[in-house]
Amino acid sequence: MKRETVVVIDFGGQYNQLVARRVRECNVYCEIYSYKTELAKIREMNPKGIILTGGPNSCYEEGAATCSPELFELGIPVLGLCYGAQLMMHVLGGKVEKAPVREYGKTEVEVDNSSLLFHDVSARTICWMSHFDYISQVAPGFRVSARTADCPVAAAENPEKNLYAIQFHPEVLHTAEGTKMLSNFVYQVCGCAGDWKMDSFVKQSVEAIRRKVGDGKVLCALSGGVDSSVAAVLLSKAIGSQLTCVFVDQGLLRKKEGDEVEEVFGPNGSYDLNFIRVNAQERFYQKLAGVEEPERKRKIIGEEFIRVFEEEAKKIGAVDFLVQGTIYPDVVESGLGGESAVIKSHHNVGGLPDYVDFKEIIEPLRDLFKDEVRKVGLELGIPEYLVFRQPFPGPGLGIRIIGEVTAEKVRIVQEADAIYREEIAKAGLDQDINQYFAALTNMRSVGVMGDERTYDYAVALRAVKTIDFMTAESAEIPWAVLQTVMNRIINEVKGVNRVFYDLTSKPPGTIEFE
Ligand code: XMP
């Protein structure tokens, strides 16, 4: 698919993915590449624009991440952000030094509206600053286009060469008119047409899938999560019943989840595909009996999933393609794009099945961020409750039950979690909290109910606010809501006599319990 592209060159800043997402929100497709990427490769991509991200270094230090001066001679517009702005000045003959005052946080900036970048932006606006170096002298040919009280060069530009530098972070939402600035860059400076839209993505993907698959057979492991659901519907739209989806109910799903997935994707649902539900609950419980160690549990669940999936695949026979729900952050985070050092070890349950007979992997969502996957889902008419579902880990409730997993404990955590989710939604908090669930601590304690002594389990409630799931804060839930949840769980869920709320942030805690 040939589409106009802006390239984000990543210098290791914490907001690298955010830059790309914001550009895409402007309907311009954008990809992230490490600063080590060869110039020839960038030239070959023929991007409409290049954005240099922030980074942790000082650009004047030896060994700091850098770029070739030729990057600025390609005739392609370049926008440098924070470190990227300093690097642009440094490489082109300006001066960057340690700032007398470190600027951090929301700051008022005065911008020159005659700059294309600040077209239609308020003359005084709020921006997000985070830097300890500053541009003390702009490079020859540049002029200053924005300043703050502490920062004489908050932005600079050489419009004849289409080179722009911004010291602050327009990609961060704290920069009130940041999206406008990025939009100005891609439209006014780069002359993009804005062809990245989810309806055209669907149309183009459907065509591309049809071309690729021909009359071949495709197999998809459907979990009911957002990514695999959207991938499955996209494929169904393209190739209909050439697609077979295998849904494994491992007995570690949320309450009623298995039936909900079947309702949407099964024979009575609205999609043209072959749906196979495997009820493997007992098989998983047997494998997990007596196992307490979290990593072993994860491994057993992952491996058993693969075995079950393989058995089903064998029944179907050889297929041509296997669908993977890989999305763009997975690609970036596994080191294939950008500078990100973080490699997620846990995100897909247990790797690829060894014995499934397929020729090729098909990854229809590989270019999309999560919010784009959701937009595609809506575009495809998938029910909203599936599209806006919170993340659910591959090992499911298996890692929300501390210690040994049994059918009885699964029932307890399913019931408690369903009550918790219901009350959070009733209180109108579900859109504000990024992930929330009940877990079963392996702790039993003494209580009293009526006149009876009880010796039952304690349920822990977790709710976090996070942007990237790498760090998180526990959410502040009104006391009255927590009390309702507590009362209902203790009254309605047999086997529970105590409810805790988990205040731990990540780090030091993780979001899940195991
Ligand atoms: P942690 O517990 O690592 O969770 O703070 C971060 C995010 O990742 C999800 N998570 C998983 N997702 N397979 C998954 O697909 C897993 O094994 C897994 N473990 C954690 C977790 O729900 C949270 O959103």
Question: Can you describe this structure?
Answer:
With 514 residues, the protein is an alpha/beta fold. 32% of the residues lie in helices and 24% in strands. It has 14 helices and 18 strands. The strands form three sheets. A nine-stranded mixed beta sheet has the order 2-1-3-4-9-8-7-5-6, with helices on both faces. The protein has a five-stranded parallel beta sheet with strand order 12-11-10-13-14, sandwiched between helices. A hairpin with a 4-residue loop joins β8 (155-158) and β9 (163-166). α5 (198-213) packs across α6 and α8 (281-288) runs antiparallel to α9 (294-316). The longest helix is centred in the middle third of the chain and has 23 residues, at 294-316. Mean pLDDT is 93; it is low at 341-350. The structure holds xanthosine-5'-monophosphate. Xanthosine-5'-monophosphate binds at residues 346-347, 391, 393-395, 435, 469, 506, 510-512.
* Gross geometry: globular
Number of helices: 14
The secondary structure category is: alpha/beta
Low-confidence stretches: 341-350
Bound small molecules, deduplicated:
xanthosine-5'-monophosphate
Strand content: 15-25%
From the N-terminal CA to the C-terminal CA, the straight-line distance is 41 Å
Describe this structure in a few short sentences.
The protein is α/β, with parallel strands linked by helices and 514 residues long. It contains 14 helices and 18 strands.
How do the helices and strands line up, and which of them pair or pack?
Elements: E1 5-10, H1 16-25, E2 29-34, H2 39-45, E3 49-52, E4 78-81, H3 83-91, E5 95-111, E6 124-137, E7 143-147, E8 155-158, E9 163-166, H4 178-189, H5 198-213, E10 218-221, H6 226-239, E11 243-249, H7 257-265, E12 274-279, H8 281-288, H9 294-316, E13 321-323, H10 328-333, E14 360-362, H11 370-379, H12 384-387, H13 407-426, E15 435-449, E16 452-465, E17 473-474, H14 479-492, E18 496-501
Parallel strand pairs: 1-2, 1-3, 3-4, 4-9, 10-11, 10-13, 11-12, 13-14, 16-18
Antiparallel strand pairs: 5-6, 5-7, 7-8, 8-9, 15-16, 16-17
Helix pairs in contact: 5-6, 5-11, 6-11, 8-9, 13-14
